[in-house]
Amino acid sequence: MIRSKSGEASYPSLALVELSSIARGFEVTDRMLKAAEVELVLARTICSGKYMILVAGEQHMVEASLSAALDVAAECAVDHFIIQNVHPDVFPALSSTNVFKRREAMGILESFSVAALVEALDQVAKTAPVEMVECRLSMALGGKAFLVFTGDVDAVLESLEAGARVIVRRGLLVNKVVIPHPRNELFESLL
């Protein structure tokens, strides 16, 4: 286990499975938790009638859990991944428990896919010293996801480009925006 800047516990590896069936999502979640010693980070329905599961833990445990998931998921698996050496700030961003200070710039990444955005989130956090403001995954977004982060202008630009490359590789980038010197009201609207 590792700790984020805010002191929250996190883990070195993260796996995500996105399914086209909600019923199968419950079954896959159960199988993942029984297959290995992992922590359930998130399991819920997402737009448009899909189901998402995120588990964390030691790499070999996460790999075993994902393997079991894919065996059960079969044709219902829409997307999946494992991120090794997850940046510790990813977990508070996913759970909306992050604490940030308003900085010089705001970066926004928008993706057609939850999986692509979570992978980009990790890359954004690893690229430059930025702080996560909000990560919204598919709820009331028609299946899309977005990430808002803040930092110095150069750091935000560098992290935005690195995160966008992850999403572009999958062909799922909706948009990317950097706002230098955003008004306080813009940050307040996100809280």
Largest sheet: 4 strands, antiparallel
Looking at the overall shape, the CATH architecture of the largest domain is 2-Layer Sandwich
Number of domains: 2
Radius of gyration: 16 Å
Distance between the termini: 28 Å
> Helix fraction?
25-40%
CATH superfamily of the largest domain: BMC (bacterial microcompartment) domain
Give the averaged pLDDT, no decimals: 87
Q: Please trace the helix and strand order, writing H or E for each element.
A: EEEHEEHEHEHEEHEH
Strand content: 25-35%
- CATH secondary-structure class of the largest domain: Alpha Beta
Alpha plus pi helix count: 6
Outline type? globular
Quote the CATH topology of the largest domain: Alpha-Beta Plaits
Query: Which structural class best describes the helix and strand composition?
Result: alpha+beta
Low-pLDDT segments: none
Strand order in space, largest sheet: 4-5-3-6
The count of β-strands is: 10
Characterize the structure shown.
The chain is of the alpha+beta class and 191 residues long. The protein has 2 domains: 2-84, Alpha-Beta Plaits, CATH 3.30.70; 100-190, Alpha-Beta Plaits (2-Layer Sandwich). It contains 6 helices and 10 strands; from the N terminus they run βββαββαβαβαββαβα. It has helices at residues 22-35, 59-73, 90-95, 114-127, 153-169, 184-190; strands at residues 2-3, 9-10, 13-19, 39-46, 50-57, 77-84, 105-111, 131-137, 145-151, 173-180. A 4-stranded antiparallel sheet has the order 4-5-3-6, sandwiched between helices. It has a 4-stranded antiparallel sheet with strand order 8-9-7-10. Strands 1-2 form a two-stranded antiparallel ribbon. Helix 1 (22-35) packs antiparallel against helix 2 (59-73) and helix 4 (114-127) runs antiparallel to helix 5. It is globular and about 50 Å long.
